[in-house]
Amino acid sequence: MFKKILIANRGEIAVRVIRACREMGISPVAVYSDVDRAALHVRKADEAYHIGPATASESYLNIPKLIEVARKSGAEAVHPGYGFLSENPSFNRACRQAGIKFIGPTPEAMELMGSKTRARQTMEKAGVPFVPGTTKGLDSLAHAREVAAKIGYPVMLKAAGGGGGKGMRAVRSADQLASALEQAKSEAMRSFKDDEVYIEKLIENPRHIEVQILGDEHGHLVYLGERECSVQRRHQKVLEESPSAFVDPDMRRRMGETAVRVGKAAAYSNAGTVEFLVDERKNFYFLEVNARLQVEHPVTEFVTGLDLVHLQIRIAAGEELPVRQEDIMLRGHAIECRIYAEDPDNNYFPSPGTITRLLQPSGPGIRRDSGVYEGWTVPIDYDPLLAKVIGYAPTRREAIARLDRAMYEYFAGGIKTNISLFRRILRDPDFIAGKVHTGYLDGLLERSKNEQHAARDGDRRIAAVAAVLFTQMENGTAAAPAETAQPAAGVSANGAAGTHWKRAARMDALREH
Ligand code: MV4
After folding, report:
1. Domains in the chain, start-ordered, CATH in brackets?
2. Is pLDDT above 80 for 480?
3. What is the pLDDT of residue 124?
4. Which band of pLDDT confidence, cut at 50, 70 and 90, is reported for residue 133?
5. Least confident of 87-96, 428-437, 442-451
6. Exposed, middle or buried by CB within 10 Å (0-12, 13-18, 19+), for 260?
7. Does the N-terminal or the C-terminal CB of the chain have fewer CB atoms within 10 Å?
8. What's the 61 CA to ligand 1 centre distance in angstroms?
9. H or E segment to which residue 215 belongs
């Protein structure tokens, strides 16, 4: 087993991996950039090395620097976390060449999953269902027209080189195809320096459901249930849960077995996630593989009772999986909220700054994976994820209640956060009923915006009428109270009695509007 592991990451995931190292008697080595010198993960490590300026390309993405620190510190392995170099085959290879174990899949498996079209070709061979369409890039507009006509509109154009919705265009009729193809290609070229675009049948309002797989280096591969990740905003996950309220036991088994087939087809080892699009009729289609540990791994840890980071490290050290598929039972329900330093009143833009006050939730069934502390200055340079709060309980309804309670315990002063968003989601009837899909959150935010506008317009109307009435009362030309209002007791119908009573009657009338 390793004696020392370098965590080539920062924030909450670095803290999370450091905790697993400590529990396993492994010494954790941290790295930090200029703005992270006082970061929580640095404080919790045994040793920490400066790797460069805040800009990620000069620090957390600096492969030679990270290899140098691994060598200098004597770390035998590197945990990449997620983001940064976690899915970078060159970093994976550089570790291998330096004799340092990369805690994750092989570079070959990583590369196979990196290209969407290569992954789809692999899936086709493995008999894995994916959305009807092309597995290779489109040669021309004529080719696009031919394929679109065959699969039928609406169709989705997608960039082969990347995910996250970049270069993606929905095309609802043939006359839109030419311009959409042009836009998709140019955006793909801008985003991925590769203008290869392919085409699929469009799935309306799909759910994003992913399956956790775990493989050792001896050919054993299991699935650990699924995660519902449909609550997203602009392709950024906001809330995830396991199990999915939409998946029944038979579907879970079929999705899991499909995910294992995907893993086997790629000779996958360590932790990975197979993403699916799921339509309203419970058909699921392969989307992509994430060759890394994911942000939302805690919800799987809760319902399976397994520690995924422990298992990642043990697999990288050459151990066999300690569980077989028949040993894996799902129990209870877990929901994760991603707490971001974002301003809900400013389009959820990042809201960095110093945390002047921090009250974080705890108590029964609440796990908090945090990368911050009171007094810490959230830098602008990285993803503004502050912490994840995970609620666990025997049932989904109890997990929601726990998390709702926890969101009312959470307070961060000095910065804006998206905590208010979770208070809304966790109390939303559609969410409580499990009626979510990838457009759910946009719909909720749109409804909330309209409600806020209506409330504001209502307030404006009342203010305008009150202003007019006040002016009239001031110069004595005010009309009798509106016919719908009953004059307050003691005031005759024509309002002749004291003005005070008249005003009171009018204000009542106003409030009733
Ligand atoms: C789709 C789709 C509908 N039909 N493909 C978005 C990013 C990339 N991961 C795949 N995505 C989608 N592909 C077809 N054929 C809808 C989406 C999609 C989506 C998928 C997963 C999670 C969030 C999403 C948000 C918008 C659109």
Report:
1. 4-103 (3.40.50.20), 132-201 (3.30.1490.20), 207-392+434-448 (3.30.470.20), 463-512 (no CATH)
2. no
3. 83
4. confident
5. 442-451
6. buried
7. C
8. 28
9. strand 207-215
Contacts of residue 492, defined as CB under 8 A and 6 or more positions apart, other chains included, come to: none
Q: How confident is the model at residue 281 (pLDDT cuts 50, 70, 90)?
A: very high
CA distance 427 to 420: 11
CA distance 186 to 164: 16
**Ligand 1 pocket test, candidate residues 113, 157, 235, most atoms within 8 A of CB:** 235
Test site for ligand 1: of 287, 290, 440, 442, most ligand atoms within 8 A of the Cβ: 287
pLDDT tens-digit series, residues 193-205? 889 999 999 999 9
Q: Give the residue carrying structure tokens 């088994």.
A: 253
- Asked whether the beta carbons of 252 and 225 are under 8 A apart, the reply is yes
Based on the residue annotation, tell me whether 292 is a catalytic residue of this protein: yes
**Smallest CA separation from ligand 1 atom 24, residue:** 438
Residues in the chain: 513
> Given the CA of residue 203, which atom of ligand 1 is nearest to it?
4
Q: Which residue, judged by its Cα, is nearest atom 3 of ligand 1?
A: 203
Q: CA–CA separation, 225 vs 208, rounded Å?
A: 14
- Spatial distance between the Cα atoms of 330 and 459, rounded to a whole number of angstroms: 50
Q: Which residue has the tokens 């409804």?
A: 447
